[in-house]
């Protein structure tokens, strides 16, 4: 039986760790978590915020995920979008999902990310 998503892994090119840290820690406000030594030798970095865990793994034949993406729930979506924009990250609003405010952005290596917040009065998601 599935109980939860443990983490989402995105790919990144070799040598991009400092740019990833600037985006995921500084812009998104996540905390970098240490990787086990055997995995740290492969490069990349891991981040978390509350129950959200994102792993960025080095892929030598890297191509950014432009369609596939994690959907990240946020609170105070307007302020969160402003925070990302203030850090130079792109913010593209999309009103096509009923009952939600959402926007897309991308990390410094081109991976797509979706940020969404349920609109006031929208029904809770089914479980």
UniProtKB/TrEMBL annotation:
InterPro entries: Glyas_Bleomycin-R_OHBP_Dase (IPR029068), Glyoxalase_6 (IPR041581), VOC_core (IPR037523). Residues 4-118 form the VOC domain. It comes from the Bacteria. This is VOC family protein. It comes from Streptomyces heliomycini.
């Amino acid at each position: 039986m599935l109980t939860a998503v443990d983490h989402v892994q995105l790919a990144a090119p070799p040598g991009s760790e400092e740019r990833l840290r600037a985006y995921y820690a500084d812009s998104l406000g996540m905390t970098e978590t240490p990787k086990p030594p055997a995995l740290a030798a492969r490069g990349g970095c891991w981040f978390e915020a509350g129950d959200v865990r994102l792993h960025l793994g080095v892929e030598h034949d890297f191509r950014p995920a432009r369609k596939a993406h994690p959907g990240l729930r946020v609170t105070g979506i307007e302020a969160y979008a402003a925070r990302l924009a203030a850090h130079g990250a792109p913010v593209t609003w999309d009103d096509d999902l009923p009952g939600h405010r959402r926007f897309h952005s991308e990390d410094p290596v081109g991976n797509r990310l979706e940020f969404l917040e349920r609109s006031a009065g929208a029904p809770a998601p089914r479980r």
